[in-house]
Amino acid sequence: MILGSTSGRAILVASPSTASHTAAPSVAGCLFQLERALVHLAAPANDAVAVEHIDDVTTFQGLAVAAQEQDKHTVTPTRRVLSDRSPALWRTLQIWVHQRRAGGRCATYLFACNSEIAGPIIDRIKALGANEGTTQDIVAALRQAGASHGRQGTRSKIQVIIDDVLQDDDASLSALVAGIRIVDGYEARDWQEPVVRGFALDPDLDHSAIFQSLFGWLAEALLEAWRRREPGIISRVSAVRQCRFLEQSLRRQRLLPRPASQVPVDPEQRAKAMTRRFVHHLTCIDATHDDVVQSVDHFLQFGAEKYRIGQEGSVAPSEWLHRGERLSTRWRNIMRQTKVHMAGADIRRIGNEVLMRTTYEHREPLAGTPCDELYMTSGHYHRLAENDDVWWDTTYVPKAGDEA
């Protein structure tokens, strides 16, 4: 699997099809953490989100810890991830209990799992989240499930953990479980919708491209922090800025014209265009055959791309008018300068000089975005010449308007 990157460097992560049987679940679990981190970053109430700091995923409001999350991911949907005596459940409870014993407090504790989880304890926690049942019900279920199953005088590893957790009195355990919430199954897997909503992503853009790039950005940011031996904390502000940057990049890609090689010219259209008005302006200065052919091709390519971009709604119709005015102003200045600098020269030579200076190298931006395809400027000039808005023959006088 390749995660996108805003810096141009791809981050390679083994996919389950190529990874070993032991690596695949681990990699999938890491990706699940990134999904969950993005969900929390998208929540407006959170100021920052940490990965592998304090907990699997931790959210902050200001400098205070708002929520801690333990992520449980399985590539085997039928596997019981958080059964009543599973190490995953009790080890997490032990971590949270120890934090609280040390004075640490958190309003919300989350178990997030990509598959549906159930069981006497989990069911009671879910019920509490739905305002059903009580914390005492959960504590009772914990004590019942935590009863020793070992032989007299021996304790299993899990029983040692369970006994440690259950040392706390009912009031302390009730205070802990009151803040526990379960996010599982479809709700945990469908992370994209809350990310779109929380970051207010433009509905007209390709969200899959944004998600891929967000994954790459988040992975790079975390790796950079960990390599510096710093906690992997990402601010929501930086995530929002990244989203806006990615949206702007996608809009620019939609706005950018296709390369000339991807805008073919039909020979029949080229032949028909040879009788157009803008070609007449070229013949008035005895433009070379190559110049005429290139001008015709650019005229047709510009028309095709202008139509395509217009259909997509990427550029306001007024921008084409403003762009034409900018090009006309530039042409007018070039015409005046050339007539002064080449005073006394043959008018055809002057006309060809103006043609070269306007259409050979200049690349006019489009809607404030650099537009590197030459045909988009040259073709636009010839579209203007088609309407007698610009011309190359210094002796030409338009029927309506004054000579430049």
Name a few traits of the molecule:
alpha/beta; 6-stranded mixed β-sheet; 53% helix; rod-shaped
Summarize the structure in words.
The protein is of the alpha/beta class and 404 residues long. The protein folds into two domains: 2-253, no CATH class; 260-386, no CATH class. Helix content is 53%, strand content 10%. It has 16 helices and eight strands. A hairpin with a 2-residue loop joins strand 4 (55-61) and strand 5. Helix 3 runs antiparallel to helix 4 and helix 14 runs antiparallel to helix 15. The radius of gyration is 33 Å and the shape is rod-shaped.
Précis, in short:
It contains 16 helices and eight strands. It has 404 residues and is an alpha/beta fold.
Write the SSE topology.
Layout: E1 2-3, E2 11-12, H1 23-42, E3 48-53, E4 55-61, E5 64-72, H2 87-101, E6 108-113, H3 120-129, H4 135-145, H5 157-165, H6 170-177, E7 180-184, H7 185-189, H8 192-198, H9 207-227, E8 232-235, H10 236-255, H11 267-273, H12 277-283, H13 289-312, H14 317-341, H15 347-359, H16 374-386
Parallel strand pairs: 5-6, 6-7
Antiparallel strand pairs: 1-2, 3-4, 3-8, 4-5
**Approximate shape:** rod-shaped
Q: Number of domains in the coordinates?
A: 2
Count, helices? 16
**Largest sheet, if any?**
6 strands, mixed
Instruction: Let me know the average pLDDT.
Output: 89
Give the topology string: H per helix, E per strand.
EEHEEEHEHHHHEHHHEHHHHHHH
Q: Structural class of the secondary elements? A: alpha/beta
- The percentage helix is 40-55%
Largest sheet, spatial ordering of strands:
7-6-5-4-3-8
Distance between the termini: 60 Å
Extended strand count: 8
Q: What Rg is obtained from the alpha carbons, in whole angstroms?
A: 33 Å
Low-confidence regions: 1-20
Strand content: 5-15%
